[in-house]
Amino acid sequence: MKRDIILAGVGGQGILTIANVIGLASIEAGLFIKQAEVHGMSQRGGDVHSDMRISDKEIASDLIPEGQCDLIIAVEPMESLRYVDMLDDEGWLVTNTTPYVNIDNYPDMADVMKEIESIPNHVAIDADKIAKALGSHRSANMVILGAASPFLGVSEEKLKNAIKKLFGSKGDKIVELNLKAFDEGRKRANL
Amino acid sequence: MKDRNMGKIMVLGDEAIAQGAVDAGLSGIYAYPGTPSTEIMEHIMRTKEAKEGKIRTGWASNEKTAMEAALGMSYSGKRTIVTMKHVGLNVAADAFINSAITGANGGLVVVSADDPSMHSSQNEQDSRFYGKFAMIPILEPSNQQEAYDMVGYGFDLSEKFRVPVLLRITTRLAHSRSGVVVKEKKEQNPLRLPSDPKQFILLPAIARKRYKHLLGNQGAFIVESETSQYNRYFDGKDKSLGIIACGIAYNYLMENFPERDILHPVLKIGQYPLPENHLNKLYNECDEILVLEDGYPFVEELIKSYFDLGKKVKGRLDGTVPRDGELNPVRVAVALGMEVSHKRDIPSVVAPRPPQLCKGCPHIYSYRALNEALAGLSKGRVFADIGCYTLGALEPFDAINSCVDMGASITMAKGAADSGLVPSVAVIGDSTFTHSGMTGLLDAVNDNSPITVFILDNGTTAMTGGQKSQATGKIERICEALGVEKEHIRVVEPMPKEHEKNMKIFKEEIEYEGVSVIIPRRECIVTASKRLRELKKIKQKETVGV
């Protein structure tokens, strides 16, 4: 079992929370992990990504080799496309469709969607809208994680345990909201 | 399956170094924040030992003061680390190079984090050159486990030879997370002064002896490298090529051989000076040599000059590997002549998204106002510095004309003003000011150079994630003590509602033909919201408590 995952978004959107959940679940599953993060200057509203590698065999490189990524998980649609050169032919792209517009030359959304839809294996959902409908606009990242969860190679149960662990200190209500967000995302991916 | 992660901690390379130091009997860490090294100090600050006051932590004014304080701790017999980003080692270089001559007493490990590809830096200099320059052992981990283990090993090595040891990492290891097996904690060293009371006095007569001592140890350092567990020779049948892989480059190499079925001999390097026995074997047995190393062609150059026996040495110098930028698995595959398939292009709709100042950042106002104040003058007179405010170079501000090294804003503005570019303006952050701006301001005062210095005071070291600024609460008094006239030290609130008042002050001071300092002061928006969140948490707890 091996999954090379690229998490993508804009600095401040919380991609590392997704990484933390996958990381915790993978540890519980007894898998090897390597996860390269971006710290420093680009965190200030710039594009950020994290290379996350999980495997039942020891992992050599901290970076995913070009063209071998199994899964791109993006919390922002244009950012989901920034790493498609890394994606394997069979790889999946799971992305949020709500754009984060903080640049003047943000492309036309129709063009962005066209490119996303040209990737054979893709899931594109409006995680912001789904999260808002659940009463928790801040758990859009858990909606996306839920949508990506069928492709992770880690069981749903272990991912949910990780969510409980990670948000546990914030109280039961926050845990419940994030679990609901996860479930809703997972449901949409299976449609 | 589960046992695999038992007793492991999931940590960044930086955190592995930090925990490795704590577990190996660390007494104190000194550092100035700098990407990608910052998380080492931050991790140690969070440990129980630090919170109980058993390990000295806290940010220094700059890397030089940090290096010197660490040397003092080593003098006292304690184990200490000093951590910085690669360009920080330039600042600490005087103390660093001379610490090799004084030697150490308690274990002294200097950690320098290089940033190939310049993710968050102004150059990609390779700290291994500093280690060679100082003639001390260098350690270079290939993964998080080695990063953890090498700190304790480095302390032992440092105490064995009474010499500082350099630990060199790169961004990729610093900021990548993996499982690390930790060891049993060691006790801290007792206070124990050097056995030779003159060891640290570098008077020429003593320095000459100390230098000979350091030179005399060079052979022993090579022997250490030859027997080190971190330098390993893996034999291979196909001797048409021998591969040298340094530090993290070893991982990129092995990534291309998932079944570990590499046919060429491989020399994995994790400790310098280079192990001559392994090198000789590789060179003698193989037809060609390929050197894989992140950073500069350090080993490649050494081998070319050391052997120079006619065999081909491939690497960054002959273009087998690109001359600049960090390595990755594909770059290594190409260097090995393996087939690499490019599957998809990045679609052209993807626009660049450079970093930018946060919404509500006080610098946004400061730059808008500065641009307005300078509107009537020709362009090209704003010298800036290192920090979030360097983003003033980008649209929509396009407000600055330089960013070179910590503190250079003030001194470059002075030099330009001395050349006749009047007015000249410096823009520097509070933390950068106390790091390396103060001495330059003194120069400007002593020459009465007509410059206006904007010290953007957001009360924190923002760019690296909001560490404590050494300048907080002290800036006006520092400026006054350095000789800036009191009436030309102006504190303003960088807010649109103060605009009219601020504009008047900006213009007055820019026109003033002497040294003036304007301090736009407002808390960093990120620090402020973090502080408010914590306050809210405390209040919630109190309410629950009632």
User: What general outline of chain B do the C-alpha atoms trace?
Assistant: globular
Task: Assign the structural class of chain A, choosing from mainly alpha, mainly beta, alpha/beta, alpha+beta, or little secondary structure.
Answer: alpha/beta
Cα Rg of chain B: 26 Å
CA gyration radius of chain A, whole angstroms = 15 Å
Main sheet: strands, sense, barrel of chain A: 6 strands, mixed
Secondary structure layout plus pairing:
The complex is a heterodimer of chains A (about 190) and B (about 550).
Chain A: E1 2-10, H1 15-28, E2 32-36, E3 47-55, E4 69-74, H2 77-81, E5 87-96, H3 109-117, E6 122-125, H4 127-133, H5 140-148, H6 156-167, H7 172-190
Parallel strand pairs in A: 1-4, 4-5, 5-6
Antiparallel strand pairs in A: 1-3, 2-3
Helix pairs in contact in A: 1-6, 4-5, 5-7, 6-7
Chain B: E1 8-12, H1 13-23, E2 26-31, H2 38-46, H3 48-51, H4 63-75, E3 79-85, H5 86-91, H6 93-102, E4 108-114, H7 128-134, E5 138-139, H8 144-161, E6 165-170, H9 171-174, E7 176-181, H10 204-227, E8 232-234, E9 241-246, H11 249-255, E10 266-269, E11 271-272, H12 276-285, E12 288-292, H13 298-306, E13 312-314, H14 329-335, H15 362-373, E14 382-383, H16 408-418, E15 424-429, H17 430-447, E16 451-456, H18 475-481, E17 489-492, H19 499-511, E18 516-520, H20 525-545
Parallel strand pairs in B: 2-3, 3-4, 4-6, 5-6, 9-10, 9-12, 12-13, 14-15, 15-16, 16-18, 17-18
Antiparallel strand pairs in B: 1-7, 5-11, 8-10
Helix pairs in contact in B: 1-2, 1-8, 4-6, 11-14, 15-19, 16-17
